[in-house]
């Protein structure tokens, strides 16, 4: 009789442990969902960065066009003062173009890093999810077995 009660207590402890593990698994699933949300946010950031990149490219093209126009004016113009002014403007434009180019390179680097992070997350996420679901199934099965054992012990106690 005492042994049966002891077994019953042990079963209850095991059930409690399994329930705690199930809670932990649910928390891990929540963490995975948050990871997925982070992935979506990274994708959104990537799209925004690509849009910014496109805008910068358009701006660079416009600046190059302006530079070409200034060179054309320079060829047509013979006045010395205007020539100096135009040359100064051309230097400023070239500096601006250089700055834009550096910004574009930085943006490309950020985009490449984000893509690498997203690929890593996409590779790890399904594996983690599958592992967690298998563990969840196993724990639920163990809980069911323990409940059946508890039922048998209670029946033995009654009889």
From TrEMBL:
Compartments (UniProt record): Membrane
Residue span(s) of domain ABC transmembrane type-1: 1-146, 84-159
Taxon lineage: Eukaryota, Metazoa, Spiralia, Lophotrochozoa, Mollusca
GO molecular function, one term: ABC-type transporter activity
Cellular component aspect of the GO annotation: membrane
Membrane topology term: Multi-pass membrane protein
Record's protein name: ABC transmembrane type-1 domain-containing protein
Main location per the UniProt record: membrane
């Amino acid at each position: 009789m005492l042994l049966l009660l002891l077994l019953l207590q042990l079963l209850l402890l095991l059930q409690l442990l399994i329930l705690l593990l199930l809670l932990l698994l649910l928390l891990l699933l929540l963490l995975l969902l948050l990871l997925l949300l982070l992935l979506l946010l990274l994708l959104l950031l990537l799209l925004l960065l690509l849009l910014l990149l496109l805008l910068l490219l358009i701006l660079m093209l416009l600046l190059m066009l302006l530079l070409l126009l200034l060179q054309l004016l320079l060829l047509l113009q013979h006045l010395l003062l205007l020539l100096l002014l135009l040359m100064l403007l051309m230097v400023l434009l070239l500096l601006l173009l250089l700055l834009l180019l550096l910004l574009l390179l930085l943006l490309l680097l950020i985009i490449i890093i984000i893509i690498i992070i997203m690929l890593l997350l996409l590779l790890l996420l399904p594996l983690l999810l599958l592992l967690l679901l298998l563990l969840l199934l196993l724990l639920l099965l163990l809980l069911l077995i323990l409940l059946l054992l508890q039922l048998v012990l209670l029946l033995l106690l009654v009889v």
